[in-house]
Amino acid sequence: MWHRSVVWPLVFCSLLLAFPTLSHTEVKEITVRFGVLPVLQALPLFVAEEKGLFSKAGVRVDLTPFNTAAEKDIALSSGNIDGCFGDLVTPTVLIGNGRDVKIVATNYNTASDRRMFGILAKPGGKYGSLKDLSGVPVAVSSNSVIDHVTQVLLEKGGVPENKYEKLEVKNIGMRMQMLLSGQVEAATLPEPLVTAAIGKGAVLLSDDAGLQISQTVLVFSGDMLQKSPEAIRAFLVAVNEASQLIDREPDQARSIMVEHVRLPDPLKATYPVPKFPAVHAPDRDSVLATVKWLKQREVIPQLLSYEQVVNAKLVP
DSSP code of 280? Predict the structure, then answer.
């Protein structure tokens, strides 16, 4: 039986619509439709488009904007786009429930000097460490990467899953406002909202810096992988060049970040431009840990191998 709280992935995975396939395989004849959100992890994609790096690499790319991750993931599942970026959880859910997609590379991860998510306590609260959250509701979005990160961080902090409560608040903006207003005692948020919340008095209890569970990955449909691997390879070459440009010229990248990434107004001039590694194969242990977690939650019916989830053969 499926768990009631897995409605969101089941929505994507139940869409079994057929769409026309591409008839050409040359890179120059392919337009890659790639889904994006206005978030920090997508910055190299926006830079590659703005600076003409996709064209330079020999591939036409249509960055298709979405307002929510759910819309983006449904578009991938239904064939309206050829690929998208996201976390480890969603593509694994899709694959585990029979959709023909693969993770092809990681383009962002949480090194020791950068975080993607953090668990925060409300301003003026009594919480100074994760152990103080034992028995306290933490606002999350269930069966998501935020849920996974929250569980891992709390367990590392000495609070096993059966010792804390989860409060379902799927809307990230609402979750932040409920935290700052004291309607919830604690919440897990993504950057840049972690930094914004700290600036308004929230207390950071832990973050995922140095962990690999919250990798940002690039995902493509099996159809695109089969019919135009050259286009995907050229796409990855352009993303790599964009990441290098961001590293060399962060001030130039800032204007693109401010234009395309949803940043709170107080942070637009000061929020650090992230550093992006070269695209690389996703960490095997992190992928398998995600698979195991989803299986335990009954979000996927069976365990998957790394090769069932990842095809990193096109990483340049």
Answer: B
The pTM score is: 0.87
**C-alpha span between 179 and 202 (Å, rounded):** 8
Taken in order 45, 70, 282, 166, is the CA torsion positive or negative? positive
**Cβ atoms of 90 and 77 closer than 8 Å:** no
**pLDDT of 42-69, one tens digit each?**
999 999 999 999 999 999 999 999 999 9
Q: What are phi and psi of 288, to 5 degrees?
A: -70, -30
Do the Cβ atoms of 107 and 242 come closer than 8 Å? no
Specify whether the CB–CB gap between 285 and 80 falls below 8 A.
no
Q: What is the DSSP letter of 41?
A: G
> How many Å apart are CA 168 and CA 50, to the nearest integer?
38
Q: How far apart are the first and last CA of the chain?
A: 41
Q: Mind spelling out the 3-state secondary structure of 154-166? A: HHHCCCCHHHCEE
Q: Write phi, then psi, for 65 (nearest 5 degrees).
A: -80, 145
User: Using one digit for the tens of pLDDT, what is the confidence trace for 95-151?
Assistant: 999 999 999 999 998 877 789 999 999 999 999 999 999 999 999 999 999 999 999
Q: Report d(CA 175, CA 188) in Å as an integer.
A: 8
